[in-house]
Each structure stands twice: as C-alpha cells, then as structure tokens.
Design a protein that fits this description.
This protein is mainly α. 44% of the residues lie in helices and 6% in strands. Strands 1-2-3 form a three-stranded antiparallel β-sheet, with no helix packed on it.
Length: 176
C-alpha cells in the first residue's frame, strides 16, 4: 500500500524522486490539500506549494497518522535503485512494460503527470506552472505525450463538411 500510494502521489504531483525523498510529514497541509517543498530541495531553487487531490490527501493522512512531523514522508531506495524498485513493482502487479515505449524509471511518473494534465484538457500554461518549468516548450515537447486514439478523436471532432448535410438548410440568398 505504501509504495502504491507513493506512485500515486508522484503521478499526481509531478514531483521528482529527489524532491519526494526530502518531504516530511510536516510538508503536507491536509486541511488545505497542499504539499510544500523548500527551495533548497527543488531543481529551480524556489519554494513550491502544490495542490493535491482530495482522495489522495485522505490516503496520505491515514498513512501519516501516527508519525511525527519531522519523519520522512516516504522511504525511497538510493537513486540508483529507483528504476529497479519500479520495475519489480510493475512485474508484481503483472503490468507489462512495452519495450517500444522506452525505459521505465521513476521519472516516467513525472512524464505521466504532464501527459495526464494534457489529456484532461488542462491549459498548457497551468501545466507548465504545475510542472515548474521555465519554458513552455519543455512542458509541451518533452513532458506531454500523445495518447493512443487521441489523433483519431481529434479528427472525429472536426465539423461535418458533407454537402448533403447542408442541403436541408434554408436558403440564405447566396449561390452556395
């Protein structure tokens, strides 16, 4: 349960493994559904406060119920063993890794975060802010990926240009 919640939290916050490693129980504001990370632990050097989903906050609150505020929120292996941990957990959950999609590592959860934001219709500027990128091109080109069937759905959303569909319309006084 703890690691499943870790993966859920990472995929819903976009935080990097080293940032998550620095979180303590006191980093979480359960009442306001926020997590705060001091700038000395962020890649851009700025303090950051991110919103969290209500259901995830409830799970985190339960997990941290009997822990002291200064206790590490999550125990993570060394940065060299993060990918092994994730791959082992995927195998245990019987989730196959598609070899054509590239390597799976903990940072893949950050890419999933960006992709889920885009797939949910979040404005690109909001996604950039949540991912804490200085350049929108990084957010859009590297961290958001097209999901299967999105192209087909986009094409289907185009207006019907069938001339037959327009014949039933009332004449407007034009030749067309």
């Amino acid at each position: 349960m703890k690691r499943a919640l870790l993966y859920r939290f990472a995929a819903q916050s976009g935080l990097r493994a080293n940032e998550i490693r620095c979180l303590t129980v006191a980093s979480f504001d359960f009442d306001n559904q926020l997590v705060t990370l001091a700038g000395k632990y962020t890649k851009n050097g700025r303090d950051t406060t991110l919103p969290l989903r209500k259901d995830t906050v409830a799970m985190l609150k339960e997990l941290f119920a009997n822990k002291l505020p200064q206790t590490s929120a999550f125990r993570l292996p060394s940065k060299y063993n993060m990918a092994d941990m994730l791959r082992a957990d995927l195998a245990a959950a019987q989730i196959e890794i598609d070899p054509e999609r590239g390597q799976v590592c903990f940072h893949s959860l950050r890419h999933s975060f960006g992709t889920m934001l885009a797939a949910s219709g979040v404005h690109p500027k909001t996604a950039q802010t949540l991912m804490r990128h200085s350049d929108i091109n990084l957010t859009m080109s590297i961290y958001t990926h097209t999901l299967r069937n999105q192209e087909a759905a986009a094409i289907e959303s185009l207006p019907d240009l069938n001339c037959e569909a327009h014949k039933s319309k009332k004449a407007t006084g034009t030749n067309d």
